[in-house]
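Subgroup meeting minutes
Present: P.N., E.W., G.H.
Scribe: E.W.

1. P.N. recapped why we're keeping a running log of single-chain structure predictions: easier to compare across weeks, and new members can see raw inputs and outputs side by side.
2. G.H. added today's entry (685 aa).
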Amino acid sequence: MSRTHIYPLEPELSKASERLPGALLARARRHPRLALLFSLLSALAVSALHIATGPARHAVCLYVVPVISGAALLPTPLAMGVAVVCVLLSLLVDYQLAAGGSPLLNPVWVGQVPLIASIYLVLNITVALRRALLREGRQYRVLDGLRTVTTAITSSLDLHHVLDTALVQVQSLTRADPVAIWLIDRAHSELVLSATKARTPARRVRADATRIPLDSMHLLAESIRQRVVMTAEAGPTAREESLEACLIGVSRMVTIPLVTHGTPMGALVAGYSSRFDTDALQVLREIASDAAMAIENAQLYSEARRHVVELEAMRAQSERKEQQARFLAEAGQLFTMTLDVRATMDAVVTKAAELLGDACLILERIPGEETLSVAACYEAETITSSSLRQHLTARPVRIGNGMLGRSASMGQACIAHGRPSAPGELGEEVVALGIRVMIAVPLWGRGRVRGVFVAAYYGEHRLPTEEDLQLAVLLADRAAVAIENADLFEETQRAGVALEAWGHELERRVEMKTRELRDAQRGLLRAERLASIGQLAATVAHELRNPLNVIKIAHFALDQGCSPERERRHLDAIARQVAASSRIINGLLEFARDSPPQYSLLDLGALLNQVLTDADLPQEIQVNTEIPASLPPLLADREQIAQVLSNIIDNAVQVMPQGGELAIRVWSEDRATYISVRDTGPGIP
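Output recorded in log:
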């Protein structure tokens, strides 16, 4: 079993000041041999003086000097030995000075009784005074040590330095071994071992006491909850197995909670292998009080510094993001400035070298082959003999082989590291060029990988991170779009040239076919005309019959005899009908020959009156004409228009054998001339 004692947390340490005797006694006690030698020599010197002065009694009083020095400088047993030596020397000298007689029968020793009593009294007084001076000196040293602790732990904001300083001073001022500090982890509601010190390996913190729940019944948790100082003293059979103990190799343990502004920060634990006095407990209280404030300041500073570091990291990350966004925006504008595929690839690797790699390349997948060839490359000027471009040109990458080949086959971005002792995925040949890290990002286009973007890093001065890999992926996406657009533009241009050539070929073929069709159509029309001559014979006979009838009637009238005036009229009629017949025959010949029309400006009103006059209409038919005087001239074939009007009028006369009305109207509208012929016949059934 173990015994637990509870003390108030507030210390009651006396405030002593430094005095010179206490300091001298403290220094002298560090050299007990010199102090003993000094006391014995003093006693011999007094005895020599006693012999020199003879039986004078005042010399005996000088034996008090070595007694006082021994009591002040030596431990109590040695001081008592010095006092005995002084008494014996005094008796021996008095005996030698006495004339004759035995020492036992000589009454000289009777005179030593007051001396012995005086020496005893002086010895006790000196020992008491020495103890008081040593206590006062010890208190001063403790206060001086506390001032040192206070100055050391309050002037530093480093938590580890504060904890180490506090533990070192606890060991120095209280002779505790081992010592440790547990701090509260509020996130997990437990005490966590934060610092420990031990002079010997046998005395240490238990392995199962590095983390102690705050809600447990452990001595440290109880001390923090009650905010009191607790001591645990293990029994003879429970030296290390006590449930309350957290130290190994000690029989007594002191637990002092670290409290500042009413808030517990942790606990200070000191172990002792023997009993400890109240002064040590007061020192522990004082150090714990100062350490609690220093730990709070250090934690606040650490938290503030952590916030500052986080803000700096956020600012740096924001600047990097802004730089990357600006870089990507500039890259996007640069990539769209040209629609040439090779120029776009050169722009991509040149721009990528600003933030990615010492050498940037684009490997293009050759259609129909399972290899990647260098399409564009940008290398730093410092890279001469160890050129990655030369290496990849001499040894093309096969799809699926190596880091670059797998990136092209799997369509995934990857990053690989290599060293001369461990080439890794880079391979010995690539590492031999001085390349330490390489980034590979596939370039997608039309649903397939058309190439790989590569960024190589030489040496150890510039190594990429995951952010660089993400930047390379974003840049590769924009580059792939720009290259695809340039490729589509070139394909469009090639298709346009081919389409234009095909258009010219089509025009030539269409023109040739049109000419052939036109010739065939003309031949067909000519054949149809020649074939329809028989059909036209009846129509021609019909058209020639009217002029022949007029000629026949005029011939009959001339044969019967008539006046010269009527004779002239009949002759003119015969001449006109002969001319009409000639026109019909010529029209038939022209139809067969497919002669083109003869256009000329004509007066449609005069032509219509001439046709009506030549028609020689019967008297039973009444003719009404409406021809405006402002009729514009008409561009047409005079003979064909006259033939058409003559045929229409003849047809109208034929459908009105009993007589009727023939109305002819001419008008002009919208740059066109219209002719309307209406009769009172029965019409077409």
